Structures are given as C-alpha cells and as structure tokens.
Amino acid sequence: MRMNQTIAYSMVVLGAAFWGLTGLFVQNLYAYDFSPLQVVALRLTVSSVVLLILLGTMARSYLKIRLKDLPYFIGLGVFSISLFNWFYFQVMDLASLAVAVVFVYTSPVFAAIIAKIFFNESLTKAKIIAIALTVIGSAFAIEFIPLGEFSLTGQTIIFGLLAGFFCSTYSLLGKNVSRWYHPFTITFYAMLSGSVFLIPTSQIWNNVGALGNGTVWLNIFGIVLISTVAAYLLYTIGLTYIESSKATILSSIEIVIAVLVSVVVFGELLTGWQLLGFVLVFVSLFLTIFSFKYKIRT
Predict the structure, then answer these.
(1) pLDDT tens track for 126-155
(2) How far apart are the C-alpha atoms of 87 and 164, rounded to whole Å?
(3) What is the per-residue pLDDT across 61-92, written as a single tens digit (0 to 9) for each?
(4) Looking at residue 242, what DSSP letter applies?
(5) What are the extents of the domains in the chain?
(6) Can you tell me where the transmembrane regions are (predicted)?
(7) 105 by DSSP, 3-state: which?
(8) Where are the alpha helices (DSSP H) in the chain?
C-alpha cells in the first residue's frame, strides 16, 4: 500500500521535530534534581515498557529474537543508546541545548572515519570537505573561532565529542542485525538492554521521592511518548515511503527545533559566530548525505 508523498515527508519532519524537543523535557527534569544518567534511565526504561505494550498488543512476532544475536542488542543498548544519551544530556547540563545538538551532528564524521578504518570505505572529496566543515563549525559553535579560546570546559568538549562518537556507532553496530529484524524489534531490545544496564548504574532509587510529583511524570511521558516513541514511529514509517537520503536531510529540522527551544524557552543567548557554526555543521551533514547517495548510484 502506497502512502501519499506529502504525508510521508510530513511524518519524517514531525518525527525529527519531536526529537528536537528532547532537551525541553530533559532540562525540566534537571530542575527536580535528576542527574543526566538518571534521566537516560527513565527515558529508556519507560520507553521499553511502552514499546513492549505496543508490540505485545499489535505485533507480537516482532518480539522474537535469536539468543545468538543478544550480544548485538546489548552492544546497541549500552554503547549506542545509553552512553550516547548520557554524554548528550551531560552537555545539555554543562553547556546548552543548542551546543549539545551540534555535537551530536558530528556523528556522520565519526561514522565516515570508522567506516574507513574498519570497512575500508573510501573517503570521497565530499566527505573530506564535510569533516573539515564539521570541525570548523564546531569550533565556531564553542567559540574557539574567532576568540582563540574555548567558551566551554575541556570536559564538556570531550563529552560532546563522545556523544557524537557513540551516536555514530548505532548504524555500525546495528548492521549485523538490521538484515534479520524489523527496526521496532532492534529498538525495543536495544532500549531494554540499556535499561538493564542503567537502572543499577544510575541509582535512580536515590531520587525516588521526585517520582511522586505529577509535573515530573508529565516530562517523563513527554520525553518517552513524544521525543522517543512517537518520534521514532513517525520517522520510521515515513522512511518506508521515501529515500533515506531525503529523510536524513529532512530530519535535520531537529537542529532548528532544538535551537529554537534553547533560545525561546530557556533564554539561551547565541552569538552570530555560534549561528555560523550551526550552519557549517548543517552544510557538512548535507555533503555527507550526498556523498553517500552518489556512491550508491555509481
């Protein structure tokens, strides 16, 4: 059954926009003394429960996996989801939402470098230019250019780069299971594995008193239902009917939404140089996508 292209594009854009709202709920939860690690634990645990209910009710066959594939799901859950989210949320806490999103969008650069080292994929001119633009754009975003000094601490910069790195590992680690399982299956078991890892690690029980607050649950359900489950479902369904390269381009609306939330809701001030940095990272994303698309066609 074919879907109207306008609807498919709209679903992808809306899904990405919902991802862009992540920081809104995260920052609100920080106000109730949740640590970044505890927020990640809440996100993955509640999302796992919601996905289990959805799949168990409407698509039970998606819950079946082979035990030999379990290590891949654990790797995805611990490295590509748990650690990525943790470093991403750490940067939100230490710097700003807008800067955190810029670091996440360095992930295509890490993916290109890892693919070159481990899979011997060629680094095209477009990819090299994209890497250079990402480095320069990130330097503007953290105001190393033109000030000659970092506006962020070394720890924040390292956390940001690690967020980009672990984000890039999702497609690489998921390669081995994506040919056998539906994306919903991969997402559920990866999140479940992340939850099992994070519940004891985050010591969420130390802040259990805050869970009695209704506003806390509004934000938990916001990050789960809007920025995780709905975002993923909309993006994945829309992706089924349009080219992946176009979907990736459309998903960059996440940057725009995140920056708007950062400025409008939280009153974070951005300099002209930082905005230039965001634009350069944005352009590098397009170059990476078109380089990949050209490679497929040739």
Answers:
(1) 778 878 888 888 888 877 777 666 668 889
(2) 9
(3) 999 999 999 999 999 999 999 999 999 999 99
(4) S
(5) 5-297
(6) 7-31, 37-58, 70-89, 95-119, 126-145, 157-174, 186-205, 217-235, 247-267, 273-292
(7) coil
(8) 5-20, 22-30, 36-58, 70-75, 84-94, 97-104, 107-119, 125-141, 144-147, 154-178, 183-202, 214-221, 231-239, 244-251, 253-260, 272-297
